[in-house]
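This week, work through this protein record:
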Amino acid sequence: MAERIAIEHLLSRGRPSDFPVAFREGQVLAFADFEARAAGWRAAYERHEGHRFALSFEDTFEFAAALLGAWHAGRCVYLPSEIQPTTREKLRGEVDGFAGQIPSSTPLLKFQEGARAEWTPLSPEAQALVVYTSGSSGEPAAIPKHLGQLTREVATLADLFDDRLGPSRVLATVSHQHIYGLLFRVLWPLTSGRPFLARSLPYPEDIVAELSHGPAALIASPAHLKRLPDTLDWAGVRGNLRSVFSSGGPLSTDALHACRGLLGQAPVEVYGSSETGGIAWRQRTQDEALSWRTMPGVEVRLTEDALAVRSPHLPDGNWFQTEDRARLLPEGFELLGRMDRLLKLEEKRVSLSAMERALLESDLVREARVVPLSEGNRSVLGVVAVLGPTGRHLHADSGKPFLNRALRKHLSSQFEPSVLPRRFRYLEAMPVNSQGKSTEAALVALFDSRRPPLRVLEHTADRAVLSIETPASLPYFKGHFPEKAILPGVAQIEWALHLGRELFTLPPEFLRMEAVKFQQLIVPETLLTLELTWTQAKGSLQFKFTSEAGTHGSGRILLGEVRG
């Protein structure tokens, strides 16, 4: 194995000029190449006034050289995880310059060809890095890092895992623009003398192809590991896979089983955050509920059921309070979920509160709630909104798909495309329970596949008229009947009751039905009109389904208070 060299001494001590640092399109990029690129970037920073610079590169080798060049120029690197317009605008007020692949409207530092540099050791006390994450308020928070924090964490990774990797290359599906990718894909390989691939591997086919070239470690995320197709020749290459790492979110049981079966091993899962650095790890080779083991030097305790951490990866010796609920165990701890409204979606942390505020900043929405939804084997976001006048007019004139696109476009200046909401529900009023609260369960229920596409045409305190579509994809049509699909009467009653609860404040207790009649069959693709009338004095919700063919169903649902 190669000599381990701390990042502070990597360029001042150096490695042999032909020592492989990275691979790009079959080409070996040696230490001499890395030193030359770092020198050119150092010269670029030194020619530019200012101390703070934002970096955004696609190529990991070039990013690593620009990073080391900045540190040796005495600069602090700001590391945005994305470069959406709103992010760039905010960064302009925080940094003195930009480098890398950033839209041309932003002035960029220019690499200085032919530059040479004398290297001296870096100071571990240097303010080296600022990464971004969402705070509990939902606003992006800047997390500063001293170089010593990074080098201590990299040393911890090397102590824990170097032996299992041996002389292997490093492959990654994750971006080096995030702290996980920066540590595992860039700094740890550089200090341990392990060459890395300069490009990311977004597709499983890429992973298989790269593993065929020899021993490698894979730095991945749950989003990638849960989508490994069993149609690829994993058996032919998994002998070259030295280890798999996963971080950035919880690894599902399905993804764990897929890794065991296809890759021949369970991933090493790493738990931590941008603020804390690495906290703990585990490898669930057999036990699916294995507790988390703290990393060397890390202490944990509970404060009101939430995990608190003291660590050499933090800037000081104080305790850091996380928002993760946990239970301490003799061999470590168990995580029990988040305490705030931050969500990891595709390994990107998104604040549901911030997204709701952004929706309200448009002139389309008067109220908005954002909720996580399950869609197959992944999570997506859904929006429940009460429209303002402009939104109602747009919905009426152009339809729901056009309004959905308008809201996604509004959010795209503040959020990455992968976290934008995929499903929308527009209501006249938010559903509330008897305490006047809109529960997440009630909001999620609005996205039930059994709920039909609809538009509210009229709505008063005691009457509503809705237009309801009945696409053939509705699950109610399956099996009713084999000879001819029809909408069962129970579905009409369920729609009437559920939509009545959305539009009126109804008593919680279902008592009975009266005068229920089903006059005509409802077949797929029938455009229905539903008229609902609420008589509070009688506790009666009257419903009537009609179409161009006439009346299909009608009746009364009687409701009352819960009886003790």
